Amino acid sequence: MMEGGGTPVISSTTGQWRGPGHEAVLHDHNQDYLVFHAYSAANGHSFLQISTIQWDQGWPRVGALP
Questions:
Q1: Which of 5, 6, 54, 57 is most buried, most CB within 10 Å of its CB?
Q2: Higher pLDDT, 44 or 66
Q3: pLDDT confidence band for 22 (50 / 70 / 90)
Q4: Which domain covers residue 34, as residue numbers?
Q5: How many domains are contained in the chain?
Q6: DSSP letter (8 states) at residue 18
Q7: What Rg do the C-alpha atoms of the chain give, in angstroms?
Q8: Short-list 24, 20, 23, 22, CA closest to 39
C-alpha cells in the first residue's frame, strides 16, 4: 500500500455521507453484509449503515452509499 497498491472497500460517493469506516462483516444465511458508520453531511451525526457484499474473484464489492 505504501507504493500505491490497494483499493478502498467503501467510500463516500455523494456529499450526503462522509467518513464511512469502522467496518465489520456479518455472514447470515449465505449473504455477507458490511456494517459500518458514516457521518451525515447535514448535521455531523454518525449513523449505522448496512450494505450487502458481493464477491468478485475473491475480492469484496460493496454497494455505494446513497
A1: 54
A2: 44
A3: confident
A4: 1-66
A5: 1
A6: E
A7: 13
A8: 20
